[in-house]
Amino acid sequence: MPGLIQHVERYRPIHDLLAGELEAVREIFRRQLASDLPAVNDLCRHVARYQGKMLRPTLTLLCGLASRPEDSRLPARLGESHRVLAAVAEIIHMATLVHDDVLDESDLRRNAATVNRLRGNETAVLLGDYLISNAFHLCSSLGRPDVSRRIGATTNELCAGELLQVHHRDDWSIDEPTYFAIIERKTASLISLCCRLGAEESGATPEVCDALASYGRLLGVAFQIQDDLLDLVGEEGVVGKSLGRDLEKGKLTLPMIHFFGRADAAARSEMLDHLSGSRLHGRPLRVESLLLAGGAVHSARETAATLVEQARRELSRIPDSAAHLLLDDLARAVITRAF
Amino acid sequence: MPGLIQHVERYRPIHDLLAGELEAVREIFRRQLASDLPAVNDLCRHVARYQGKMLRPTLTLLCGLASRPEDSRLPARLGESHRVLAAVAEIIHMATLVHDDVLDESDLRRNAATVNRLRGNETAVLLGDYLISNAFHLCSSLGRPDVSRRIGATTNELCAGELLQVHHRDDWSIDEPTYFAIIERKTASLISLCCRLGAEESGATPEVCDALASYGRLLGVAFQIQDDLLDLVGEEGVVGKSLGRDLEKGKLTLPMIHFFGRADAAARSEMLDHLSGSRLHGRPLRVESLLLAGGAVHSARETAATLVEQARRELSRIPDSAAHLLLDDLARAVITRAF
Q1: Which residues of A touch B37 (CB under 8 A)?
Q2: Is B158 within 8 Å of A132 when comparing Cβ atoms?
Q3: What is the distance in angstroms between the Cα of A57 and the nearest Cα belonging to chain B?
Q4: This model's pTM is above 0.90
Q5: What is the predicted ipTM?
Q6: Domain-by-domain residue ranges, chain A?
């Protein structure tokens, strides 16, 4: 069972169903990216290895399953459109990973070399473009322009969020609202749309769609905070990708914002020396200990935990089902994960 | 009158019509890219400056006008879908320019600084993504999934062509079929689709649609050969962008392929010394004179001219009209242009 959800024996039927559906999503992903050019296929095979948690497809499918349970223990049926939308979201996500690795000059992703490391930045930029294009091509196969339009609007948001982040590079006075504006756009918008579309494709009521979209948004923000925490205090071998890149790239994330909000003059000044001096390499131990000692890591974790609790409360607005329980598990796993 | 078409007094009505339609396309372009984030708007305003020849919008509109002439001198009416498709094609093209400038490390575009030069590679990569996303978002506003699907298929081709090109970097034995496979995908596919969609939106017969699609493909290949010639032997101040980048980036284009196909052992060896030695900077005069003396530039020009003649012959399959005459002018201008 891939992903973040722990296997619990009494949920076996829905676990097995989800595993089968995710395999079908992977097959759509593979088929969509296949080219008559061997050079392109080699690259796509490499990218397929980055599929890890499959968070976005899992949410699309689970929200579909949770939206119209005919029986609280038996899952609703999923349609091909759920799988296609799940694959579209995963391809978009892969495109952002490939381009993020170029921006961050990362060498490692899912414990494998990044495309930019293996084949250079040019190939990585173009491969990301190929993925984005294929995501829209696949999406349009649904014959649902309204869905294509909303996915396009969301990827616009996603890119604008990334642009806003780069715009604030080396801005050591960035505030919480700006940080949240960035991560809501770059991460939470697509995750929220996955939840909403999964529900809509199952014919869910507007209230259920709204509840799941809101669940996705809150969970998405918490997910990004956890990602940012792992970049600062995670273990590279466990996380499986290059860490410390946010500091190297001058990206201030929540723990650092919390640090600056509560540090005394001496600690602030010491941290700024670390950040503003010559380019950082890796994560200086002293930066980590300043963040831990000042309680900044702890308070960022608390913020993420509060968001997860809010996300879980949104689930009270959807019917009981096995999928509902898995969505609840998933929300909790987002911030307990070490990878 | 922007673009490649010379103003001829007796075509004034269609020139004026086209100029007005192109202004409407620019307005759709601006409106689509507008964001609530000032940082994003600044970038999009800069990109709008790259709009030069507007080749793809011009072809979309002219093929629309040429497809259903109610009178041979009066143009057919264009619909909003023509303008939207023209804007979609231009946004896609802008995205490829922004990313190409990153790949080619170019500093100059339309006599202005490139985005990568002004704001760095990260911003340029993300801005290109924002443009691609917006192109699909705009396209889906037509409510025509079949059109979105074909545009997606074409941008898949375009990206695959670019990937194939990078795959053959520093490959001094690349042959003509591979060169043509690359440029048909990366350049001619979108230009051909612009022509076909312009015609289809005017309700053209399948024969007219096929003729114009074929015209666009041939013209697109000739256009790229001319671009590649200008990179080798054009004048930077006239072309308005960084030149010599193909050699610096190890991209073999038609003149060089022709050179290697006909050079004697000494000339081959001298050229290879230039190409394979330490990284080239700019365009060594000796490379230019080897290409000119060996007749390689001349023969590449002849290939482009032959393609243009073939493109013009396709026009014999469409009805007479003023737009028809402009399409004929445009085909000739593609290879006589110095910019």
Answers
A1: 160, 163-164
A2: no
A3: 20
A4: yes
A5: 0.92
A6: 9-336
